[in-house]
Amino acid sequence: VQLVESGGGLVQPGGSLRLSCAASGFTFSSYVMSWYRQVTGKERELVARITSAGGNTNYADSVKGRFTISRDNAKNTVYLQMNSLKLEDTAVYFCYAEWRWMYYWGQGTQVTVSS
């Protein structure tokens, strides 16, 4: 099983990034997919979640209206489009897959928002 995030990097405030998470080794289309983020010394927090067929999404209040989660089950990939980035969005972003009692984490990708 693998979850491989990509797309992180350094961006100025107000900028955009799109994170991708490529999945393999499990039935991706059955899993609820989420993005979490973590700042050193703080707890990991849920950013966005999308149901297995993509029909429902939910977001942390701090990112509503700026971030969009989506998925392509044909490509076994989940995305996080991040717009209007703020300094406080700086974190390591993790991809997370869950189905019943099964769950998997990606290794994380660093997003740094700085001027």
Protein architecture, described:
The chain has strands at residues 2-6, 9-11, 17-24, 32-38, 45-50, 57-59, 67-72, 77-82, 91-99, 102-105, 109-113. Strands 2, 4, 5, 6, 9, 10 and 11 form a seven-stranded mixed sheet that branches. The protein has no helices and eleven strands. With 115 residues, it is an all-beta fold. The model has no long low-confidence stretch (mean pLDDT 97). A hairpin with a 6-residue loop joins strand 4 and strand 5 (45-50).
Poorly predicted regions: none
Q: Major sheet, described briefly?
A: 7 strands, mixed
| Number of distinct helices | 0
Structural shape: globular
Topology (elements, then pairings):
Elements: E1 2-6, E2 9-11, E3 17-24, E4 32-38, E5 45-50, E6 57-59, E7 67-72, E8 77-82, E9 91-99, E10 102-105, E11 109-113
Parallel strand pairs: 2-11
Antiparallel strand pairs: 1-3, 3-8, 4-5, 4-9, 5-6, 7-8, 9-10, 9-11
What are the key terms here?
115 residues, mainly beta
Summarize the model shown:
The chain has 115 residues and is mostly beta strands.
